[in-house]
Amino acid sequence: MTYPKLTIDLKKIEENTREMVRRCRARGIAVAGVTKMVCGNEIIADALVDAGVEVLADARIENLKKISDLKVPKMLIRIPMASQAEKIVKYSDISLVSEVSTIKALGNQAVIQEKVYNIVLMVDLGDLREGIFYMDEIFDAVEKIKEIAGIRLLGIGSNLTCYGGILPTEENLRRLIEIRSTLEDKFALTLEIISGGNSGALSLFEDDSLPEEVNQLRLGASLLLGIGLDDKPVKGLNVDTFRLEAEIVEIKLKPSVPIGEVGLDAFGKVPVFIDRGIRRRAICALGKQDILPDYLTPIDEDIIVLGASSDHLILDITDSSKEYCVNGRVEFNLSYGGCLSAMASGYINKVFI
């Protein structure tokens, strides 16, 4: 077996997905399964479809191209680049959009490819990432979109928590619903979709405060990792779906503070160390080129992650009751960012169970 090794439990991911699809359908919500954390992995995407997701979504058109054979609509959830308009129209069916000039580029390609391309206009509800913030600009955009050949305005949407950390609430999602109603009245439109956000919005399920008009959620973390708002576990879902193993290449007793004049490390930072005396340290063949050490939580709670260079992960194993050895393994749970990094790394072997 090649290490580092990322073990992915497809059965538990499917269980999570089926459960979330069930909960969402009971509220009239369609689930767009987001594959960006797994870099559009075809095996995982197929598992999401088998478990009932109605749309596959990703931030990269390159990832949607990988899964183009799966017979469900594909959604591009990063604001599209006009330079990729040809590929976007070819390999996806829906985009989350905010710039009229880019929508025109998509429309031009849709005409060339003899398609009608769907868009969801993004509204910024305060998180200050993507979307149109001011109402007069929303009106102006819709007025122009109506005249663009090859484009169908399918609905409106928003995103919260990812940049500004703004929590989804009934109040801010109500604003999205009011905007939909205003647009339908003003422009004689029917907007089919209100795309109400990501896994963070699941927190509104607990007190049944998610407005019933929200009929789509873009779920990634909850399906793949069983987590929702603030990375907290979602009740009833599996959180142990990804596990990373790294091989130990060195074990030595050493001081816990480097000796000599301190300068910048390999990443341009001045490192800070805690003096714990002489400690037993293990080095694993895993580094920042693969994953940041902050994303790793050792399964063995008595191990301390000290840090990493490009290729070496340095651990303090002094307090562990387990007897580690060179060529042995250390196992880790991963955060969302850790899974994203591990899936993107070409140096980490992926194993499905």
Q: In one word, what is the shape?
A: elongated
The helicity comes to 25-40%
What is the overall number of helices?
Answer: 9
CATH homologous superfamily title of the largest domain: Alanine racemase
Largest sheet: 8 strands, mixed
Approximate strand percentage: 15-25%
| Average residue pLDDT | 96
Q: Structural class of the helices, strands and pairings?
A: alpha/beta
CATH class of the largest domain: Alpha Beta
Provide the domain count: 2
Taking all Cα atoms into account, the compactness measure Rg is 23 Å
E-strand count: 16
Q: Would you tell me which CATH topology of the largest domain applies?
A: TIM Barrel
Looking at the overall shape, the CATH architecture of the largest domain is Alpha-Beta Barrel
Q: Which regions contain 5 or more consecutive residues with pLDDT less than 50?
A: none
Helix and strand run: EHEHEHEHEHEHEHEEHEEEEEEHE
Terminal CA distance: 14 Å
Cofactor: pyridoxal 5'-phosphate
Domain Alanine racemase N-terminal: 8-223
Protein name: Alanine/ornithine racemase family PLP-dependent enzyme
InterPro entries: Ala_racemase (IPR000821), Ala_racemase_N (IPR001608), PLP-binding_barrel (IPR029066)
Sum this structure up briefly.
By secondary structure, the chain is of the alpha/beta class.
Features:
isomerase; elongated; 8-stranded mixed beta sheet; 9 helices; Ala_racemase; Alanine/ornithine racemase family PLP-dependent enzyme; 16 strands; 353 residues; alpha/beta; TIM Barrel; 2 domains; Ala_racemase_N; pyridoxal phosphate; 8-stranded parallel beta sheet
